[in-house]
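Technical annex, item 7. During the second reporting period the consortium partners agreed on a shared format for inverse folding records so that results from different sites could be compared directly. Each record opens with the tokenized structure and is followed by the designed sequence. A conforming record, contributed by the partner at site C, is shown below for reference.
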């Protein structure tokens, strides 16, 4: 059975000092370009309270922020999982650093299939962390098709390097994931109006899902929708909601945001993967 520590910063029992934790993540100390900075790093470490000799699992390695912090905190081991081949390559690089050699074990695949990836029925960890969703690096790479702000092909697969990069495939697991996948292009251009509306409503919570789906179907009847900018323009024209900002960040959002989120969640089967993981934790 899996063991999971859930982060509740207010109930932290760790004796690790706050100044020490704040020094844990420094992107200059990794052998690759790191874009994504973990937001809850301090809270995660406070609650997990890593100990020497224990084994932990980072189910969404990304740029390695949580993994590196765990390894730096004490003489422990970490299994790092990610379905993104570029993240997996970063994990391999980090595992080859002297300080982490023999303590970091990268795994390429979906976190909902951790048992299969480890080749065991009941892997047991002393703590696990998940940072669910799309990362900054994925959003800022146009060829991967995640962003409605940057024009690129309608891909959105977490396990794809981006269309036009097929020659860069290096791993057998990578090819397996891609062979069983569909892209956002297929969803947008081949799914029925009802299917698209359900995807947008169920995964994005947009009450205008049927209006958006109708606009997509009408647009593709003239010519296939090829890229992210074109899809965003179709949605914005159908539902010209004002652009808005959320919180203190500098990102301007528009009416395409929820649709892009919804299609990404569907393409990557994210809800099922999370449900599978939660079920396995308590089964």
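Designed sequence (site C submission):
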């Amino acid at each position: 059975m899996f063991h999971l520590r859930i982060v509740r910063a207010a109930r932290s029992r760790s004796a690790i000092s706050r100044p020490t934790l704040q020094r844990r993540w420094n992107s200059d100390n990794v052998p690759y370009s790191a874009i994504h900075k973990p937001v809850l790093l301090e809270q995660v470490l406070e609650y997990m309270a890593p100990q020497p000799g224990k084994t932990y699992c980072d189910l969404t390695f990304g740029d390695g922020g949580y993994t590196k912090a765990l390894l730096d905190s004490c003489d422990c081991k970490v299994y790092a999982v990610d379905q993104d081949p570029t993240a997996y390559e970063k994990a391999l690089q980090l595992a080859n650093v002297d300080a982490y050699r023999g303590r970091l074990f990268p795994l390429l695949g979906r976190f909902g299939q951790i048992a299969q990836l480890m080749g065991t029925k009941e892997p047991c960890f002393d703590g696990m962390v998940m940072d669910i969703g799309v990362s900054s690096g994925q959003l800022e790479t146009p060829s991967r098709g995640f962003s409605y702000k940057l024009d690129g092909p309608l891909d959105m697969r977490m396990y794809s390097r981006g269309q036009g990069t097929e020659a860069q495939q290096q791993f057998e697991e990578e090819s397996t994931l891609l062979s069983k996948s569909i892209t956002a292009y297929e969803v947008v251009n081949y799914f029925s109006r009802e299917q698209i509306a359900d995807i947008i409503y169920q995964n994005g919570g947009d009450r205008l899902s049927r209006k958006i789906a109708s606009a997509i179907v009408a647009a593709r009847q003239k010519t296939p929708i090829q890229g992210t900018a074109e899809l965003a323009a179709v949605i914005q024209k159908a539902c010209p909601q004002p652009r808005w900002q959320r919180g203190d960040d500098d990102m301007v959002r528009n009416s395409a945001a929820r649709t892009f989120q919804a299609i990404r969640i569907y393409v990557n089967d994210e809800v099922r993967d999370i449900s599978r993981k939660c079920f396995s934790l308590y089964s």
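The two ends are 7 Å apart (CA to CA). The chain has 13 helices and six strands. All partners now use this format for quarterly exchanges.
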